Protein 1
Amino acid sequence: MFADIIPSHDIASFLLKFIDKLLDLIGLKHHSTLEEIIYVAIIVGVSLGIGWLVKKGIITGVRKTMQLRSTELAHEILEQHTLERCSHIIPPLVFLALLPFAFSSESHTLDIIERLVWAYVFVCVGIGVSAVINLAFYRYNKHENTRNLPLKGIRNVAIGLVWIVLIIIAISVIVDRSPAVLLTGLGAFAAALMLIFKDSILGFVAGIQMSQNDMLHVGDWIVVPSTPANGTVEDVSLSVVKIRNFDNTIVTVPPYTLVSTSFQNYRGMKETGARRIEKNVTIDATTVRKCTPEFLTEIVQKYPLLKPFVDNLETKKMLSQDDGGIRPINGTIETNLGLLRAYLCLFLTNNDLIAKDQQILIRLTDVTAYGLSLQVYCFTATTDWNKYEAIQSAILEHLTVTVKDFGLDLYSDSTLSVTSEIAEPEQKTAQIAATAHRNDNTSQANPVTAAPTK
């Protein structure tokens, strides 16, 4: 089969003559078994040497080409060690070409060795094909996969299928049976195989669903409620999704879990460049008052931002203003709370740190036993965690100090302070009573005789 590629006859004749001379030099008789052993050992060394030389030659040639043209493909081939892994097939091919000349055509030993070497050839083919698949995946993932689709599972399945086919062929060569016979026998173990590879099968199906529906990318921030996963996706393989939490712990979740249950993906937030602020503060309902002309004048002087709003409502004799859209100035001049809502809307719409293309809203939500719940709803113009928290804190701090100027108070539980104030005089009274009781007992234990009176 390899006679046209490798001049094995001339090489084999030379090696056999060399072995005969070697046996003559050491004084051994020409024994066929001994010659076969020495010949096999020599051609094993020759095969490995030729394979090493070819590998070095190919790698050196690629490096020279890379230095001259500086092609990106050559860099990636060297980086992924593709040529080195593909060159593993050269030694067994050379060995197969030289092996038949050491044995007779009817030798049983030759048949066994050839089967084993052919099995090794298929293993080398599997290594080479896997290296090519890895290179193709690496190039596509680096240059074409701009959305970071989780394709690693598909790559693993492709490599797995290649190895399954090659292993079946290798086993059929070793046992000298047709691959169809082996496949027929494997059908009886289909249930067992499905049970063994259940997680891999489910992971493969889940990977296809996630890729097709664009559910998950490497680098996404996800939260899986049923697990402690709350962080960035680092890797998506056939069996696990690796997530690094914000405390730098690693959580692994089966891909099927993400498909069968719900999870939250913050990719949309990053793509829009805006992150939501939704905070509630409770206003003491007893501090809500009707606005007087004097109060309006005082507030407008202290907060000039309100002047156009107040003048517009006073001119049109309206109770409230709501411009609609995503940035409504929803407030009134009837109460100090309505005026506060208008001011907070104006404050946010004039803040460069707040996204203007997202919803901005100040509204009253549920009325509770503690007061009126005032909600600040807007989006920051950044998704950076540190900046987001700083902007959110600054808005809440500004709101906390501003409510006083509008004659409002935030609800705070004063039960503790009131209880302590009540408990203090009671404690003093109890101490006085205890002291008096103690003195009374002392006087009974040590009676003092009173002077007789006349």
Note: Residues 32-69 form the longest helix (38 residues).
Protein 2
Amino acid sequence: MKQFSVILLILAISSNAFSQDLSSFTQVAHYTMNNTAADELGLQEDLTLINVVQNGSEGVYCNGKYIGNSTDASLVSTGQLDALYKPSFAVQVELKIDPDDGLNRPVLVCGDGWRYFGFYVRADGTWSPIFNDAQYFDQVTAPKAQPGQWYQLTMVYSGPDSTARWYIDGTYLTSVQGTFNRPADDGKISNTHYGIGSSFKGSLRNLKIFESDGIFSGSRQVKPSFYAEIFPNPVGEYLHLSVPNQRGGVQYRIFNSTGAEVMAGNLSAGDGIDLRKLRAGDYFLHLHSSEKSQVLKFIKK
């Protein structure tokens, strides 16, 4: 059973909520993967490349087989990176999903024994952040991934304000707030999720690592116009919401702590949600309109 230790605060999700500005970070590695496993900056040890196809400027191709049960499985892995234990760090890579796959796949995962930070692409093309070994699928409303197309993934963890953020091609996807559970000496980044026994299938190139002792300097914009509030919290039978009017109304989906959807529907300003059929526990309310999205955590008594 996965442990979900992260505490989610109210997250206002907007494509303009943060800019992808890494100018406050120092780059400490650049693995081009252009027929080489070496760090172009000469600061880190070579990548471990097992059973990958090296395609020059197209990077390396991974066959998607899991290293734990297949002798010809592809593995791309860094050595131990001190950057992953800095107060703040960022990881960036270019990826292209295999058109013939159709399975849920990790892209990059920080940590072998405990997957504290990473990114997943599900079979339907949904982007899925990983935080403290939990997958936050259905939290991202960006267009789905298209096989055979190159994307640039950027993952940023800002330790001073305990916030993880994910971007695709410079566009903000989502964020999770909480503190990493980072075991000592588990500072590798790889294409493999050892907890699930799954590996990326497709091409990777231009893996870059950044570090910083300060807070992430991405510019915070004003609070988006779509900003709902919920009450009471913890809640008994009915969850009340203050939801501004939005074109086309607001859709809601409720997920439990394991990521399973338990309720869904539509809301208008002043509406509440009948929770009498829900068991006691932690839940995540996803609100979506044609203009904005927001995720709120609540507790059912």
Note: The two ends are 23 Å apart (CA to CA).
Protein 3
Amino acid sequence: MIFVGFRAFVIPLSIPFLGVLGVLCVSRAQLAAQIEMPDPKQMSGIPRPVTDLPDGSVSVRLIRGSLSNNITNHPVELHVGSKVQTAKTDDSGRAQFDGLTAGASLKAVAVVDGERLESQEFPAPARGGVRLLLVATDNTKKPEPAATAPVSGQVALGGDSRVVLEPGEETVRMYYILDIVNSARAPVNLATPFVFDMPTGAVGTTVIEGSSPQAKVSGTRVSVQGPFAPGRTSVQIGCELPVPADTLHVTQQFPAPLERLAVIVKKVGATTLSSPQITSQRDLTAEGQTFILATGGAVAAGQPLVMSLGELPHHSSAPRGIALSLVVAIVAAGVWASRRPGDTAARVAERRRLIARRDKLFNDLVRLERERRTGRGDEARYRARREEMVAALEHIYGALDGDDTGPEPATGAGLAA
């Protein structure tokens, strides 16, 4: 997937979040007692790659308003380039299209009660399939009450609020799904602004597509402008947290009371979650992925929410530090030797040591390249180690070039074939 400009950062944040929520939709009955899902309209039309469908297949689920309200026996169109395929939804509200040509441009379309529902355009997958929702408006809902003048009041973070954490390579993506609830019958203005700062170290803080336009981000500061309409205001914020070790500590304060703590963590390996404010947690497996689901009691406005993730994937910085230390030592020794023109024997010995070190690094580099060609070793470790060895060789050559104590053996003498 290719992204350009600013959206290169915004879209990758929103897709994993929606993917997590989409996976959890499979087990809604299991989660209903703990964590309720957001408005499905936020997920409508967004393709989600999956591995539980045949290669080159697309499954379109058609619902009205909520995930429990499937639309059955209804035609769904799949536009494949300039051609159109049609299938009817089954008892679970799904219409499936199989045998699609990899890379073909696709778009799902359905018309429900005169409302045209369209998905984003996306390429047909070469491996695995794609699932997506099309969500029609539920016209049975009561109309919104007429707007009235704002009054002074308070809001709370309702039961649909949650924290989603997704460990990755050297980082953790974090999402706040905030359900700001105004229980009054009129819009309210708060006595103090709804403003909070993301946790220390957060980078790339952004408002995720689908959030209320009242949400704004400036650096790591998030603000939601009033007045707040009666009912719910959805705010979704994403960021990345660098992980220098296998443990990450997160502290967050919100400007409104949190009615109930809910945390979802995508489990990678032996990832663990702990917090003094969590009262229960369990693992849930859905579509081949494991999630930690944790809940707790209310958290007062301004009270720090403290969480810790353990056993996170990361690469130790020790090898790089050792290599850089060796480079500094080698260069320092070369400079020291070059400043003693009268001590020829010492300079010759130092030159031989540098040549021996150079040849060893060449041998190590050859061995590293062999391991990579045979598919052994980790790609990230290969790149980091190769960079360290090349940097060390450059410094050694610099020291040898500045020394004229005598001829140098042929480059790579004694290297393994």
Note: The chain has three domains: 39-136, 151-310, 318-401.
Protein 4
Amino acid sequence: MFIRNAWYVAATSQELADKPLARTLLGEKVVLFRGTDGAPTALEDRCCHRLAPLSLGDVEAGGIRCRYHGMKFDTRGQCIEIPGQDSIAPGMCVRAFQVVERHGFCWIWMGRPDLANADDIVDVHWNRAPEWPTASGYIHYKANYQLIADNLLDFSHLTFVHRTTLANAALVDARPEITAFDRGIRLNRLIVACDPSPLHGMAGKFTGKVDFWTRQVWWLPSIFENWAGSVPTGGTGEAHERAGGLHLRHFSLLTPETAQSTHYFWVQPCQFPHNEPGMIEKVGKGIDTAFAEDRWMIEAQQVVMNDSPDVKPKAIRADAALGRVRFMIDRLLEQERAASPA
């Protein structure tokens, strides 16, 4: 159902403290916490004794203690203390997951441990970097992550769903250039001399036509990177390299919770062609509004699909990118199934 050999965002860095955080990821219940050394830890959220949730327990030096019978587990998931019992069998343990903290997020690997490579974590270093004021947020979706992916990969919906935020009438006819690579696809799009979207017009303070670009990457299985921007039309050279442009370096980081729900983390680092205090807060409110519009539509779509499981969607030309990503995800799922022990 889910690609497991991949890095997913489990939580933001701010969410992890000395208190346990319970979260369902890829259909599994996980407890996340920081040890006394500050390093993030992720364990399966059930004590191996009577299966009580470890997330109800207490973080202590060296691990976490179950609140039911006091068994203590270290950051590797091994039980290291049983009150009233001197010996501990090696099998008294819970599964531990690899966690890497980077770019303001805690990334988790829930697949084969020997395949985990932290170098494969998507570069989100723009998040709150110097000169990049950043808006960010979290959405809990009652929908499968692939429906959200479909939405992000098809910008033709902006004209109809986001009339007050991201709408750009020219997007309907502006087909992106799509290029596949081993970890996903790239989409490039340039629209010359168009009206700015309401959000770009506000953030860039544009008074006339602009050249609008998007340089996107879909990182398999579920991360969307979108370097988008606008610059006054009429200049020379590449639009994204001209002075006076608005640059939005957006990341949507999707982590499946269950087959019908998704954790949606997003960050929106920006560079503005002007210096207006508080503009990033206005951009954040605009993104919140736009994503609420998406959520309204996508969750309603999930309800209809649940009610009509035998009805299959029909494709149109605008589905080229999402169709390619769905094919690549299906292929990865088949490869993981084939490599799994019987």
Note: The longest strand covers residues 246-258.
